[in-house]
Write a structure and sequence with these properties.
mainly alpha, Glycosyltransferase, two-stranded antiparallel sheet, 4 strands, globular
């Protein structure tokens, strides 16, 4: 009898161990659930193809329903080759202090990346490009370059004088003259938001990076004008204000100390570039270039436009809103918002749709008439806004924009602007960020994930 009991107990234990081992192998997945990796570019290797199995979804910790894999675009071989060549060129452009430089506006004839002073704005763009291409502080072909650039930016923030409106005392760079005197802090804040999102709270640099991010947020908010724009306009100051607004939004998503009123003012300032009623665009702070203004409008209304879309879909499914009803203030009220909230969100929705459409029109895409760093930045804002808003139109945008960039890449793998911001380092970093935007889909979607405010 004891022998039989012992054998039975042993069988139960063995079964339990087997179940436990199987559970470790299948944690987070049903046995029949397809695996849907977000494509990550690894230098020297082709990007993995996303699965296209019916029903395959991506999920983030913020989203309830996930994302159908049809949203993901596989980069063509020509784009992958362009990315690799560009990244190889970019990492060689890093200076001994870990930073990258665009040079001064007064000496745009100097194109050697090692013959100019390093600046935070250019370094932030280069670091974001390296990170989007798959390297982290611990892993990837260019982890050392990323770590050095990160250390450079952290020191710039930590050594900034109290009460300053920027994190560098360097003046007259190409980026500052063309975008704004305080652009360095906005782009550095964006990098730090991306960094803390990827490294997590257990990383030894997390709290230092968060302190630096909060410092940048405070500087951006201190440098705001009453209308939500940022002081120190450059030639196309609308882009400085747009990147400052999106930096506040990204920082808020990572738990930084962002003042809600400052963020609202920054977003509203960008929305004000568009007059939805007649389709006109305010370009006074955009050097008269429609592209610069509408890309900022679409980027800084994307989160709210996505909220409207998802809330209205849910309200129609629940019978609160008629299934054929267009988005309107009344429909949003029926979905559970107050009148004031409904009016604000409806404005954001209409601005996003109008701005994103204009930002993709051929006559607008031409920008100043040829490609400069401002055009590349505008393309980046448009692309990110389409992903954040979960706009299926992003796939068509990606194909057209990557074709355009690949066709104008220099033989050495770099890009340079043909007016205003001509710096090959800045333009190459920005172009890499555009080409590899599909590597960052989960991060961008998480940033725009709806926090439902309706009842």
């Amino acid at each position: 009898m004891r022998k039989h009991l012992f054998i039975a107990a042993a069988l139960v234990c063995a079964s339990g161990i087997t179940v436990m081992l199987v559970s470790f192998r299948t944690t987070g997945q049903r046995a029949d659930a397809p695996h849907c990796p977000v494509p990550q570019a690894v230098p020297g290797l082709p990007s993995p193809e996303p699965h296209t199995i019916k029903g395959c979804v991506f999920k983030t910790v913020f989203e309830g329903e996930g994302l159908d894999s049809s949203f993901v675009v596989r980069a063509p071989q020509a784009v992958l080759a362009a990315e690799r060549r560009a990244l190889d060129w970019l990492v060689k452009a890093q200076a001994n202090d870990g930073g990258y430089g665009a040079g001064t506006h007064a000496r745009q004839d100097i194109v050697d990346p090692h013959a100019v002073s390093t600046d935070p704005a250019t370094t932030a763009m280069a670091a974001m490009a390296i990170m989007r291409m798959g390297s982290s502080l611990e892993q990837g072909s260019y982890k050392d370059q990323l770590a050095r650039a990160t250390e450079y930016l952290l020191k710039q923030v930590e050594e900034a004088p109290k009460g300053a409106n920027n994190i560098t005392q360097l003046q007259g760079t190409q980026i500052q003259v063309k975008l704004g005197a305080n652009i360095d802090v906005a782009l550095t804040a964006q990098f730090l938001s991306n960094l803390v999102a990827k490294i997590g709270e257990q990383h030894p640099k997390y709290f230092r990076a968060m302190r630096a991010l909060n410092t940048c947020v405070a500087i951006i908010q201190r440098s705001q004008n009453a209308d939500g724009s940022v002081k120190g306009d450059g030639w196309a100051g609308v882009l400085q204000s747009s990147f400052a607004a999106s930096a506040l939004e990204s920082a808020k998503a990572q738990g930084a100390d962002v003042d809600e009123e400052s963020l609202r003012l920054a977003r509203d300032n960008q929305k004000s570039n568009m007059d939805v009623a007649n389709g006109s665009v305010a370009t006074e702070r955009a050097a008269g270039v429609t592209l610069y203004a509408v890309s900022g409008s679409s980027r800084n209304s994307a989160v709210e436009a996505r909220e409207v879309n998802e809330v209205i879909v849910r309200a129609k499914r629940e019978g609160k809103v008629d299934k054929d009803a267009p988005v309107s203030v009344d429909a949003l009220e029926d979905a559970g918002y107050s009148r004031g909230e409904a009016e604000k969100l409806n404005t954001a929705y209409q601005v996003y749709n109008s701005a994103s459409r204009q930002a993709q029109q051929d006559n607008v895409v031409s920008g100043f008439g040829n490609n400069g760093g401002e055009e590349f930045l505008s393309f980046l804002q448009t692309g990110e806004s389409l992903v954040i808003a979960k706009d299926q139109g992003w796939k068509n945008w990606y194909g057209q924009t990557t074709d355009r960039l690949v066709s104008i890449q220099n033989q050495d793998g770099s890009w340079n602007g043909h007016h205003c911001i001509t710096s090959p380092v800045f333009c190459t970093a920005t172009s890499i960020l555009i080409l590899s935007i599909n590597n960052d889909i989960e991060h961008l979607l998480a940033q725009g994930a709806v926090k439902y405010r309706g009842n």
